[in-house]
Specification:
The protein is an alpha/beta fold. It contains ten helices and ten strands. It has a single domain (5-248), classed as P-loop containing nucleotide triphosphate hydrolases (Rossmann fold, 3-Layer(aba) Sandwich), CATH 3.40.50.300.
C-alpha cells in the first residue's frame, strides 16, 4: 500500500452562518487506502466529506476557513476549477440516485459532459466502469433498460460506476449502504476493497463494524472536533482517547 497522502486537511474551520460546525480539523488521508469517518449523528462527518470536493459551495450560509490539499495544492484557492476538481474527486451519496434514464446514459453522463463523443470510447468506458463497479455481468445485456428498474443495491453500484466513469483519483462515499439490505451492503463493502486498488476512498459510516471491516484508517469525530485519527486496527483495539473508547464500546452515540 502507498503511504503518501492524497488529501490533507489543515486548520479547517467551517461555519453555517454564525454556527461553527467544524473546528480546526487537521489530518492527512493516504493514497489508495480507505479512510472511514465515524461518530454520532451531527458530529461533522458528512460536512467534512463535502468540503473535500467543495460541495458545500452550494450552501449560501456556509463559510470555510483553512486548507484542503489535493496532491499538495489547496482546492480553496480562488482560481480553483471546481468542475475539474469534482472530476478528480467523485462522490457517491447516501441513497442511490440514478438519473431517470437508461443504464448506458447514466454511465456516460460524466464523459459526455466533459466532451467525449466517440462512440467506441463511450462503449469502452461503460464496460470498464460497470466492471469496476462489479455490475457488468448483471446488466451487460440490458444497458438500454431504465436504471430505475434495478434493485437498490444495483442502483448504488450504478452510481459508483457513474462516478468512476470520468476516472477520478478520489472517491467520496457518504453512508453508501445505509439504505441497503445486508446482502447488498456486503456487495458494496467487497467492492470498496477492490476500488482502493485504483482510487483513494473516503467513506462516512454510522456502522462501526463496517468501518472496522473495510477501512485502513479511521477518523473519529464528535461535536465538530476530530477526536482521534489513526490506523483502524489501533483505533478499534487501543484508542488513545477515552472519548473514542467510550464511543466504540457503545457507552454513547
Amino acid at each position: 500500500m502507498e503511504t503518501l497522502s492524497k488529501l490533507s486537511v489543515k486548520d479547517l474551520n467551517l461555519y453555517y452562518g454564525e454556527h461553527q460546525a467544524l473546528m480546526n480539523i487537521s489530518f492527512s488521508m493516504r493514497s489508495k487506502a480507505v479512510t472511514a469517518y465515524i461518530g454520532p449523528s451531527g458530529c461533522g462527518k458528512s460536512t467534512l466529506l463535502r468540503c473535500l470536493n467543495r460541495m458545500n459551495d452550494f450552501i449560501p450560509s456556509c463559510r470555510v476557513e483553512g486548507k484542503v490539499l489535493l496532491d499538495g495544492e489547496n482546492i480553496y484557492e480562488e482560481n480553483t476549477d471546481c468542475i475539474g476538481l469534482r472530476r478528480r474527486i467523485g462522490m457517491v451519496f447516501q441513497r442511490p440516485n440514478p438519473f431517470p434514464a437508461s443504464i448506458w446514459d447514466n454511465v456516460i453522463y460524466g464523459p459526455r459532459l466533459h466532451g467525449v463523443k466517440n462512440r467506441d470510447i463511450l462503449r469502452e468506458t461503460v464496460e470498464k466502469s460497470l466492471k469496476g463497479a462489479a455490475l457488468w455481468d448483471e446488466v451487460a445485456d440490458k444497458l438500454h433498460s431504465p436504471a430505475l428498474s434495478l434493485s437498490g443495491g444495483q442502483q448504488q453500484r450504478l452510481c459508483i460506476a457513474r462516478a468512476i466513469a470520468v476516472a477520478p483519483e478520489v472517491l467520496l462515499m457518504d453512508e453508501p449502504t445505509s439504505a441497503l439490505d445486508p446482502l447488498a451492503t456486503a456487495r458494496i463493502e467487497e467492492l470498496v476493497r477492490e476500488l482502493k486498488k485504483e482510487y483513494t476512498v473516503i467513506i462516512v459510516t454510522h456502522n462501526m463494524q463496517q468501518a472496522a471491516r473495510i477501512s485502513d484508517d479511521t477518523a473519529f469525530f464528535l461535536m465538530g472536533d476530530l477526536i482521534e485519527f489513526g490506523e483502524t486496527r489501533d483505533i478499534f483495539t487501543s484508542p488513545r482517547n477515552r472519548k473514542t473508547e467510550d464511543y466504540i464500546t457503545g457507552r454513547f452515540g
